[in-house]
Structure to design on (195 residues):
């Protein structure tokens, strides 16, 4: 089982281009997290009892419609509320949906503190092809004792955006940017909690 997890995790790690490229259509999603070495003992399997998402107010936000704004948070996939709150809710939903896939031996609380969410501006999403660069710190605690089982561990996720033509097609059928990112996060966060 551990070998299968390692093979699956390795298959998810790809070379990542810069935040903006215009190289044709790609739908590869990259998970960049430390892989266990052969000598490491496997972590216990988890059942997630609770998820706590922290999006610090100290993270800077850009609303500029430039190609690559300089900020911790660049996100256009929601309306209403602050960008910090939008991302907290998005991560909570995705982490809970992902956690439902885990039926392990140890009940845990997963704490994720967002350190960067650099998505796409409207200009980049509809004109170029870029990626979503997402980083957070993961701490896994025993749900019964509160003891730290794993972490803090820095996790980086990189999701390639669809080509602008595909973005228009997705929009036309009602598949929003938020849905696209959430669908990716559900699987990625579940994967992060399995190694």
């Amino acid at each position: 089982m551990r070998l299968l997890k390692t093979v699956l995790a390795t298959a998810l790690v790809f070379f990542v281009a810069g935040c903006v490229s215009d190289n044709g259509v790609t739908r590869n999603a990259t998970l960049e997290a430390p892989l266990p070495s052969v000598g490491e003992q496997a972590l216990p399997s988890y059942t997630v009892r609770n998820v706590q998402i922290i999006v610090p107010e100290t993270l800077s936000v850009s609303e500029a419609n430039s190609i690559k704004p300089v900020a911790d948070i660049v996100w256009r996939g929601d309306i209403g509320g602050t960008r910090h709150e939008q991302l907290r809710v998005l991560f909570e939903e995705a982490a809970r949906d992902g956690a439902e896939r885990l039926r392990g031996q140890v009940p845990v609380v997963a704490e994720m503190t967002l350190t960067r969410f650099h998505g796409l501006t409207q200009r980049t999403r509809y004109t170029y092809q870029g990626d979503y660069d997402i980083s957070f710190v993961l701490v896994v605690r025993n749900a019964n004792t509160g003891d730290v089982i794993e972490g803090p561990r820095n996790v980086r996720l990189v999701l390639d955006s669809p080509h602008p033509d595909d973005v228009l097609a997705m929009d036309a059928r009602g598949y929003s940017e938020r849905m696209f990112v959430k669908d990716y996060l559900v699987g990625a966060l579940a994967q992060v909690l399995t190694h």
The mean pLDDT is 81. The chain is about 30% helix and 30% strand. Residues 145 and 176 are 40 Å apart (CA to CA). The two ends are 11 Å apart (CA to CA).
